[in-house]
Amino acid sequence: MGETSTITAFATPLSESAIAVIRVSGPDSHKIAKEAFGVKKELKARYSVFGVYKSVSGDALDECLYIAFKDKSSYTGEDALEIYCHGNPFIAKKIFSDLIARGCRQALPGEFTRRAFLNGKMDLTQAEAVADVISARSEIALNAAQKLLSGTLGKKISDWNEKIIRLLAEIESQIDFSDEEVPDLDRAYFEPKLSEIISELKNTENTARYSSALHEGINVVIFGPPNAGKSSLLNVLVGEERALVSEEAGTTRDFISENINIGPYRIRILDTAGIREYAASKIEAAGIRRSIECMQKADFFIFVVDASVEAPEIGEEANALITPENTLLVLNKSDLGSVLDANGFLPGFERISLSLLDSGAYEALSEKILGVLKSKEIVPKDDVLIVGIRHAESLSRARDYLEEAIQSLGIVPLEFTANNLRSAMSELSEILGRFDNERILDKVFSSFCIGK
Ligand SMILES: Nc1nc2c(ncn2[C@@H]2O[C@H](COP(=O)(O)OP(=O)(O)OP(=O)(O)O)[C@@H](O)[C@H]2O)c(=O)[nH]1
Ligand SMILES: [Mg+2]
């Protein structure tokens, strides 16, 4: 793409470590390496070389390894350099400052990957996936990001576009040979073919609903009547005494939030103040209000009840939010015997009966939570491609054009149908970044860290 600037950034965090990596990319990369390491010959690409890095003023800054990359064979698709110095932030910063003195500019967030994209090393979905791979905080998020990085979505889009092109070619051939205003098109031939693509687009688009659960974690709210064992449940899942637990009802006044991993999933779990229909004080009423507010943002609920007492009344608002599809009922305190009708209470809801004081509580509970999150489709299936919101929006627009194409078949001149197909294709291409839209590129790359 003919970038004229040479950029540099730390590729590893600035903290004490065995090795620190500094990246350089752009036309002067090799010249700078030769000068700093005192090399006369041309650099051999993709070889690691030992050398002493000397500053512009001739001071030896560190003994390093460095690798030069030649245009197409680098990450960015242009001449590049990686310097591996000792992992002391002082050294890394000195080398970085010297690179700036030698004419490099500090890279913007995501600029290395942006160049890789602009130089055709990857499509836009893969570039986005680089950021996702780095920031993934659960196994499932990592799997999904790696799937995107491998170009799975790009491949799907190429397949769809190819199918559309074939239909477009057939339609255009009819435009060319038709002398009638509205030619007699074989609707029965085109419609099912277009509908098939539409339903594939829809399926892929629907996976975006998992996107926030994947990246930010699944919001799980623990709620229930006072004293049921909600904070005890949080502590069991977190594996430490995070929340205060006491036999006094109304111990938890404000919500407590923790991030945990259960199996391959990242979960943001909230312990809330006990809910009952009538609050005894102003503070309790405020606590209940907060609990309901937390519940309104939840992806999933864990409803904890004390099964050794009568069934609780949790009030209309909480009742309206829970369904068999989004709630696991925990019938706690099984060690105290059962008063509550364990099967008759909220029939149809998934349930587990246990004592949170039991040493096996974590195993039983986490296994049950995993099973329910999967069976209720709160989490994606293990091996599915998950698209982001940006992708879903384009898929939806492409679908609209294909729907319009179906409606226009044989009713309006074929040019309209052909135009709709072309628009659908360009929407799909936008997902891969095959278009010239600086605004979208800025948006995509601004969320990156510097050095990527
Ligand atoms: N016997 C028995 N006691 C339990 C069990 N789980 C929790 N408790 C006790 O029940 C009491 C209340 O537990 P918490 O975890 O504070 O209950 P909570 O629902 O957070 O209560 P609030 O915050 O006051 O609404 C504590 O004394 C716990 O030790 C259980 O399985 N069996
Ligand atoms: Mg509590």
Q: The biggest beta sheet, please?
A: 6 strands, mixed
Hetero groups in this structure are:
guanosine-5'-triphosphate, magnesium ion
Coarse structural class: alpha/beta
Query: pLDDT below 50 for ≥5 consecutive residues: which ranges?
Result: none
The radius of gyration over CA amounts to: 29 Å
Euclidean distance between termini CA atoms: 18 Å
CATH topology of the largest domain: Rossmann fold
Overall average pLDDT? 91
User: How many structural domains are formed by the residues?
Assistant: 3
Assign an overall shape. Answer: flat
- CATH homologous superfamily label of the largest domain: P-loop containing nucleotide triphosphate hydrolases
| Share of residues in helices | 40-55%
Number of strands: 12
> What is the CATH architecture descriptor of the largest domain?
3-Layer(aba) Sandwich
- Kindly provide the name of the CATH class of the largest domain: Alpha Beta
Please report the number of helical segments. Answer: 15
Strand content: 15-25%
Order of strands across the main sheet: 3-4-5-2-1-6
Please, could you describe this protein's structure?
- The radius of gyration is 29 Å and the shape is flat.
- It is α/β, with parallel strands linked by helices and 452 residues long.
- The chain contains 15 helices and twelve strands.
- The mean pLDDT is 91.
- The protein binds guanosine-5'-triphosphate and magnesium ion.
- Guanosine-5'-triphosphate binds next to helix 9.
